[in-house]
Amino acid sequence: MPVAILPEFPTDVPTHPLLVVDYELIKSGNEQEIDVLYKAATSLGFWYLKNHGCDEDVENMFDMGAETMNLPLEEKMTYEQGDGGSSFGYKHRGAYIVNASGETDQSEFLNIAKDDALAWPKQVYRSYPSTVNARMESTVIPFVKKSIEINDTILGVFNDKLGLPKGTLQKFHSMEEISGCEARTIKVPKNLPLGKQALGAHTDYGSLSFLHNRVGGLQVLPPGVDEWQYVKPVPGLAICNIGDALTILSGGILHSNIHRVFPPPGAHAKFDRWSQVFFYRPGDSIVLRPLVDESPLIAEAVGRLSEERKAALDPGVTANDWNIRRRKYARMKNMTGPETWKAGRGTEQGRV
Ligand SMILES: O=C(O)CCC(=O)C(=O)O
Ligand SMILES: [Fe+2]
């Protein structure tokens, strides 16, 4: 683990509390806990998850991430994801823009496709640095498999709460189909100059994000609020959130909230910031549209939307095209002006 002992998260910065969901209770079908989860998913769209049983896997992923980020930049650059909209591989610091004026980001990413991990030692998309290969079996595959299991359980809860025929959402996330699901390690260097954004405001592209961090810096802009608020890292609790794909499929019932990463506040600023995430995303061929024919609840929710919101939640493209478009226009090299920034936006349009 890259950080040994951390000072307390500062108490004098705006912080947003999250509901705490107990994964063990969710797994056992506890109705009360399912209600807490659904409340979180339909309000802010972020919650803490306890008892997920992944602590050791996450620690191992942090170690793998540190070993990889410590490689020389020239070596990491041979695995760069490129400007065509692919996500898998390495993203160097400054490759993304954080706003319409074209300021660049301060985060380094390593993204490992679930399809490459599960097919190992075969390759579906690409190769990875030696530090990843060395830990594929001991570290990456177990983390990917456990993350999939947890996210699939949560997806099943949403499926039933939304009144969808049994297994509908899970079918859209079949592990038989290739998808944008990926494990991501993020490094943000310590002592960033004030005002520099580590990662610009965005909504996540896929269905569910399963995030682990120790050092603060993640911020949310809750609905109806004008001030960005930190999400406090709590040891042992994962931070989970809804992504755009689930917002679209549910006709806006599940909420994909805008968030960003700022330099860590207070004494946390003196530490490198590491995140470990698993992004759960629909199969590449799944068409993103509200499931109005499959659920009266979703049909009703869509019926209440403004025409503008209705159009925004019915892009009618596949999950793969959605991901490619959003990533492509996040890349600094593809920026020609505010219009390319706008072209990369998701369901948060109108909120940035
Ligand atoms: O590092 C974090 O806390 C959040 C990262 C994030 O929002 C993302 O990778 O989409
Ligand atoms: Fe995100």
From TrEMBL:
MF GO annotations: metal ion binding; oxidoreductase activity
Keywords, in A-Z order: Iron, Metal-binding, Oxidoreductase
Matching Pfam families: 2OG-FeII_Oxy, DIOX_N
Residue stretches making up the Fe2OG dioxygenase domain: 171-282
Family, per entry: Belongs to the iron/ascorbate-dependent oxidoreductase family.
Protein name: Fe2OG dioxygenase domain-containing protein
